[in-house]
Structures are given as structure tokens and as C-alpha cells.
Protein: Phosphate transport system permease protein PstA
Amino acid sequence: MNAKTIDKIWTGILYALSIFIVAILALLLGIIFIKGTGFWDPNFLFGSPKLGEAGGGIGPQLFNSFYLLVLALILTVPIGLGSGIYLSEYAKEGTFLNIIRLCIETMASLPSIVVGLFGLLVFVNFFKMGFTILGGALALTILNLPSLTRVCENAINDVSKKFQEASLGLGATKWQTIKNVLIPASIPQILTGVILAAGRIFGEAAALLYTAGMTTPHFKLGSSIASKANPFNIFRPAETLSIHIWKLNSEANLPDAAAIANKSAAVLILMVLIFNIAARVLGKKIYNKYAGIK
Structure:
């Protein structure tokens, strides 16, 4: 066979595999959304669970998931971006830098359950924090920090050195060049990494089982910030949506536990899809803005 025939064969195989993967994803989404029909009901999305009764909602769990997401990103993004800038622009090639990168790669490959056990030992037991939102946010930071650091480092490295040299040649300092040239030019990739990390945070369960807990106090608006009834208290336990799904399927303490779990799964996967699509759309728009493409 000549080169063109071989190329057509392998191209066909690639297309077939791509279609197969897309079909599996479509089948998975279809099953989840069909089983979770009715998840868009406001009473379900914003209502509270009813202990021992059918027809409960996921309002507190949904709030906990978004609250944990915000806290984890507040901790993760500045540290990840700062680490990426250091590794890309300030760290010198050598043994020390190789050790840092090896540690980052090792941490990135840790299973989330291991990070959860670490959080249990350190945040819950050693620091006597108990099961808290803050402990869960710290565990999620440890889980996502290595991957976000590498994304930020690679994004800054991908910016053409000509831009950096031109800025320095015009008299700008190194920090001014990083702040005004490198970071804006690498924002699309960084933003994509942040939103993908957000999707992972929103759907995480294993690391939160041992740090944030599996219960949520009854919310009471207007209560003291130190009270566990205050939804914004970071030192209260918090059951997220992913943990709620696991709990429903493992304990089944509600008459319609299976139906609530299916609806919750549909909400969860819809949010993860929104995060992923948003990453692509926003990243492309920001890139076009900086590239001058209309």
C-alpha cells in the first residue's frame, strides 16, 4: 500500500474511535438526564431534604457545593498562578527546580481519597478543626494546586519570547513585563485551567468525605456568623451535592432516595458540562480579544 492509502486507513480509524467516544458520552448523558427527569423543578433545586419523607430538595447541598467552589478557588488560583510565574520566570534550571517539578507531578497523580485522608489527619484531627467547609476547601486546594500550577507555567511559557524581549527593550521591569504582557497574553489558557479545576471541585466527593463531612446544619438566615446555622460560617460541616448522591445510594434513608439521587446526578453533570463549555467559550473570546480577532 502506498502512503496515501495508509493515511486514509488511519484517518478512518481515528474518526471511528472519535465517533465511538462521542457516542458513549451521549449515551451516558442521555441515561442520566432521562433518569433524572424533573431535576429542573425549583422546589427540588432550592428546597430542603425532608428526613424520612418523600419529595425533598437539594438546596443546602447545592449551596454548599458552590460555596466550597468559591472558597477553594480563592485559595487555589493565587497560589497556582504565583507558583506558575515563579517556575516559568524566576526559578533557575537545575536540581532544585527538577525536584520541585517532580513533587508537583507526584502530587498531581495522588488519588483524591488519599488527599481526603491527609485532610482528616491534619485539618480535622491535628488542628482540631473537625468537619468544616474550610477543611474541605484546603483539601480541594491541595488536590487542584499541582495541575493548576502546571497549567499556569505552561501558559506563560507558551507566550512568545519576542513579546517579553520587546517589553524589556522598552524599559519595562521584569515584574511589569510579567504583569502587563505575559499574564494578559496567557489569560485564555489560565482561565481554561481555572474553569476545568472548578468543574473538578464541584464534582469531588472522596476528598470531602473526610474533611467537610456528610451533614449540613439547618440554615437560619440572620444568625450569628459564628453559629453553625449560618450558611456562610466556614467552620461548620457541609454535605455537598456529590456526597449527597453517594449518601443516598449507600444509605437510602428516604422513600424516594433513588429518584432524588438520579435528579441530583443530572444537576451535577449539567454543572460540570457548563463549566467545561464555559472554559472553551471564555478562553476563545479572551484570546480573540487580545489577538485582535473580531
